[in-house]
TrEMBL record:
Pfam families reported in the protein's UniProt record: Caleosin (PF05042)
InterPro entries xref list: Caleosin-related, EF-hand-dom_pair
Molecular-function annotations in GO: calcium ion binding; monooxygenase activity
Protein name, UniProt field: Caleosin
Residue numbers spanned by region Disordered: 30-52
């Protein structure tokens, strides 16, 4: 009964519908294993790569990919302490006195502690860290000449070329390592990059030639004042604080940023003269 009903229904369908019904019941031929190709492998994750194949400079000046494991939150600029993997809490036993790292650096030259640095105080500070008379005299004039006006609390310049420590961040020049950010904080990742990029002979020190490569690599286009300021600062540091092998050690440079190096040099020179 049921079979005869189905036959009747099919016989009443149009010829085109019957043809489509027959084709849908046919099996498609099997795909041979020889014609099968596996899907392409997924592309590697390149989001954390620090070197670009078509940018050789990224291979020459390398970053430290393991810094996150060596120091907590290395991307976070520190306001009070100059930290690195060997000094995660900053300089041990040193009170930042509520000042930014850049302010601590400058405060060494504030010889009477009133928050203002005059040229004669800069001269005294340079002499204390071991600079000769000509360097101290010229340096005190140039430093106060360039930093006085940007750090003034108002629009009027100071006839005495005073530097106000509260506004020292406004005197930050370009073409530097960017270890100080624009507010005077200490950026651990930028500090680490000084040595990962340019410390090729020794991982935690710079030779004289490597120091020159760093100065050249940090240059901003047409920033001639920044070029001269950076060269003067780093070459003076090298002449005063290189070790017996002619190397500028990582710890020495870290002490430069928070000013603790100045205190060590002053103590060393005072003991030598006594």
């Amino acid at each position: 009964m049921t079979l005869s009903l189905c036959v009747q229904l099919v016989s009443r369908l149009p010829a085109v519908a019957v043809l489509h019904l027959r084709r849908s019941c046919e099996f498609s031929p099997r795909v041979s294993m020889s014609s099968y190709s596996p899907p392409p492998p997924p592309l590697p994750d390149q989001s954390l790569d620090t070197e670009a194949p078509n940018a050789p400079v990224t291979r020459e000046r390398r970053l430290n990919p393991d810094l996150q494991e060596q120091l907590p939150k290395p991307y976070l600029a520190r306001a009070l302490e100059a930290v690195d993997p060997s000094h995660p809490q900053g300089t041990k036993g040193r009170d930042p006195r509520g000042m930014s790292v850049l302010q601590q650096h400058a405060a060494f030259f504030d010889r009477n502690g009133d928050g203002i640095i005059y040229p004669w105080e800069t001269f005294q500070g340079l002499r204390a860290i071991g600079c000769g008379l000509p360097v101290s005299f010229v340096g005190s004039i140039l430093i106060n000449l360039f930093l006085s006006y940007p750090t003034q609390p108002g629009w009027l310049p100071s006839p005495l070329l005073s530097i106000h420590i509260n506004n020292i961040h406004k005197g930050k020049h370009g073409s530097d390592s960017e270890t100080y950010d624009t507010e005077g904080r200490f950026d651990p990742s930028k500090f680490d990059a000084i040595f990962s990029k340019y410390g090729r002979t020794h991982p935690n020190a710079l030779t004289r030639d490597e120091l020159g490569s760093m100065l050249q690599g940090n240059r901003n286009t047409y920033d001639f004042p920044g070029w001269m300021a950076a060269a003067g600062e780093w070459l003076l540091l090298y002449s005063l604080a290189k070790d017996k092998d002619g190397l500028l050690q990582r710890e020495t440079v870290r002490g430069l940023f928070d000013g603790s190096l100045f205190e060590r040099l002053q103590d060393h020179n005072s003991k030598k003269s006594s």
